[in-house]
Amino acid sequence: MLVGAIQLNGSRMTGGTNPFPGSTVAVDGSNYGNCVEAWAPGHEITSLDPVGPSLTRISTGTSYSAPIVASIASRVGATTTRPIQREWYIRNSRVNTGYTDPTGLPIMKAQYVGTSLGTIPKILPIINGWSMTSFTNLTALWDGLYTSGANWNAGANWGSVSLDLGSIKTVRGVRLTMRSSSTDTSIDFAVLGDNSGLTTVSTVLGYHNEPYASDLAPVYIPLSGANVRYLRIDGNAYGSWLSYSEIEV
Question: Which of 2, 35, 115, 156 is most buried as measured by Cβ atoms within 10 A of its Cβ?
């Protein structure tokens, strides 16, 4: 997840102390826009100083915000809890700080809320798949191995994968582990689902634009909880071929 930094009052971090004692590098404001998926404290954080003359230092940056979100994710579930489940938890436990970023989007702070969210959605099994663009390494998309090297590649910028969940399930999200030859590639996705058949999925469940997808960068597509057996994921990449190493539902 791409994380932004907030100040103590919940607004976007716009500057602060230099990241290291004696540094002359100015601290820029936090990244912002629809690429940011969660926010966390990152302004003038007191931490241990392993190299300086004092025991602690005060510094600023998203390098503090990202591990805070990661630590929240690490507390969720057990060793069998998958990345998509931890990401669902982060997204659904965020709280609005009352501030917006420069694009007008609300700043949603990550927080740990224990088990008050109820049961985290289960990983849905994928029992079969089909593609109108490529069958090579198709089954590798649900083998649980994110970097095995057996990647599905559409062979072009556009590609489509259909999945059979075995029976009608409530689908709350899809997570794609991308493979790419370029960095910061924009990709448009359409997710379709219905109960007609694996090769005839046609009902649109949602659209998603990922502005900065890159190699091994996961893309999470939230869905509203449709009850379907078959899913179809269409992707159109700008600047790179379309490829995944894993799909989680």
Answer: 2
Is the Cβ–Cβ distance between 61 and 29 less than 8 Å? no
Residue 15 to residue 169: CA distance in whole angstroms? 46
As a whole number of angstroms, the distance between CA 182 and CA 128 comes to 30
Break the chain into its structural domains and give their ranges: 3-109, 128-248
Q: Which residues contact 177 (CB under 8 A, 6 or more apart)?
A: 146, 216, 218, 244, 245, 246, 247
Neighbours of 208 (CB within 10 A): 18
Residue 217 tokens read as: 């960068």
Predicted structure pTM score: 0.78
Give the other-Cβ count within 10 Å of 246's Cβ: 24
Residue 160's closest CA among 183, 128, 192, 182? Answer: 192
Is 202 in contact with 195 (CB distance < 8 Å)? no
Classify domain 3-109 at the CATH class level.
alpha beta
102: DSSP letter: T
For domain 128-248, give its CATH number from 2.60.120.260, 2.60.260.20, 1.10.10.10, 3.40.50.300.
Answer: 2.60.120.260
* Torsion sign (Cα): 85, 134, 228, 206: positive
246: amino acid identity, one letter: E
pLDDT digits (tens, 9 = 90+) for 199-230: 999 999 999 999 888 888 889 999 988 999 99
Q: Nearest 5°: CA angle at 41, between 55 and 91? A: 140
